[in-house]
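Here is one chain, start to finish.
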Amino acid sequence: MSNELHVAIAGATGAVGIEMLKTLENRNFPLSKLSLLASKRSAGKTQTFKGEKITVQELTRDSFKGVDIALFSAGGGTSKEYAEFAVGAGSVVVDNSSAFRSDDEVPLVVPEINAVDVASHKGIIANPNCSTIVTIMALYPLHCAFGVKRIFASTYQAVSGSGAMGIVELERQVDEITAGKQVSKMVYPHQIAFNVLPHVDEFLESGYTKEEMKMENEARKIMSLPDFKASVTCVRVPVLRAHSIAVCAEFERPVSISNAKNAIESAPGIDLNDDVANNNYPLPLGVAGSDNCQVGRIRQDCAFDNGLSFWVVGDQLLKGAALNAVQIAEEVAKL
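Its structure:
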């Protein structure tokens, strides 16, 4: 591609779209033009990029003429409806929804792990699920060192993973409780303030949720490990931003803590924060707003012969979504 590219963001007024805009600016992405697209309801609003106001245009089938890369973050339905028109206009689509992740013809990419897969795209590249990305950023370096077989994991997912209304709901409920008022619920089926909900996404017949199965299915594709297994419980917690995951992993080869820490320290995009003697370990408050994920509490798992347990935290709006998408776009720009 040329040195400077015309990039469009579909879903530019949403939480992830706004982060995509900021990330393009922060990483000084080589732009010739930036188009911001959203629903008819949001058209006419303005967003600021490098000090200049850009007017949001209505997303239509004709929005992608001359666009080199289209970053989609407007939901799976929108992606399924409009991605084909973007590809037809010559754009490369980087899609943040679940619409194409399981499609064998669509690469599913975390650039630190499988950037090489970008070159095999046929017009669309999928961004993995946020909790999958955060988990795999810590798991993959350990896999390279020891060969992962399976994991058991529990996620602690921030309310911003439900979009802006998740944040509004938590803050409103806290205010209602402290004022002695009746708690109102609109986003979640139960009160989220001062509570945790073992319920993220829709339940399947198996008893797992769609979110929980994404971890196994997507990690298999990203790491090219068709036999990888993951048993996951996804939990929504009253945290504004950044997802946390507790992982117990079993490996093919004997593990050591020193080799595990060395593997993490030499891997891109993940920082080791593991000094329990001084109460240093990853926290959502410390990771929110950061590009890199953090991992700590690394210890030998007492239930597996070749096992490690660890705690990983990442900003799901950045590395879990917007940053990963822009990193994929950077790889596309190299082609």
